[in-house]
Amino acid sequence: MPDLPEGWLSTADIAELRRLGAGATVLELGAYQGRSTVVLSEVAKYVVSVDRHQGVPVGDADSLPPYLEAIRPLRNVAIVVAYFEDFVPLLRCAFDLVFIDGQHEYAEVVRDITLALLVDPAIVAFHDWDYDEVRQAGSEVFGDPNRVHGSVASFRRTL
Ligand SMILES: C[S@@+](CC[C@H](N)C(=O)[O-])C[C@H]1O[C@@H](n2cnc3c(N)ncnc32)[C@H](O)[C@@H]1O
To answer: N or C: which end of the chain has fewer CB within 10 A?
Structure first.
């Protein structure tokens, strides 16, 4: 994938994000250098992309310079440099899709699900569903996924 920023999405994950994000208004929680952001922007109506960009974990390398280089030209992406928990409660509109790819520890995933539900998404999708703590948190709230493709699991909340 030479044209995409660095990140952890596999070819299967990219195909699944393209399918889930087609025509959608998307809230992306976790962008890093913008790999998923670019993929989503190519198919989505609009992407609000949130990341604190202070490294993974915090204090590690700054992801903002490569992210900005990749994302700034994209007209349908709003760049939000913020902590999820500070920014998402300020939103009042509904999103079609929330893509959760932040920290993968249980408590943080539960927190991110709680934030995602504030914007009433039709679909909630998780990256790294093969991580035990991501799967545990997601399953406790939503049950079994409607679909798993690559390491992306998605839950449809409306028909
Ligand atoms: C696994 S990376 C995201 C990878 C990206 N989706 C991709 O396709 O390459 C996780 C990102 O979530 C961000 N993050 C984790 N917890 C966060 C929080 N509470 N608020 C803001 N950003 C957070 C980190 O800064 C990191 O860039």
So the answer is: C
pLDDT, tens digit (0-9, with 9 covering 90-100), for 21-60: 999 999 999 999 999 999 999 999 999 999 999 988 777 8
Tokens coding 129:
């569903």
Check whether domain 11-156 has CATH 3.40.50.150, yes or no: yes
The minimum-distance atom of ligand 1 relative to the CA of 30 is: 12
In angstroms, what is the span from residue 56 Cα to ligand 1's centroid?
7
Long-range CB contacts for residues 73-76, cutoff 8 Å, separation at least 24: 74/37, 74/38, 74/41, 76/41, 76/44, 76/45, 76/46, 76/47
Nearest ligand 1 atom to alpha carbon 39: 8
Is this model's pTM higher than 0.85 or not?
yes
CA 23 to centroid of ligand 1, rounded, Å: 23
- Which among 65, 30, 33, 32 is positioned nearest to 48, based on CA atoms? 30
Atom nearest to 128 CA in ligand 1: 1
What are the residue boundaries of the structural domains of the chain, listed by start? 11-156
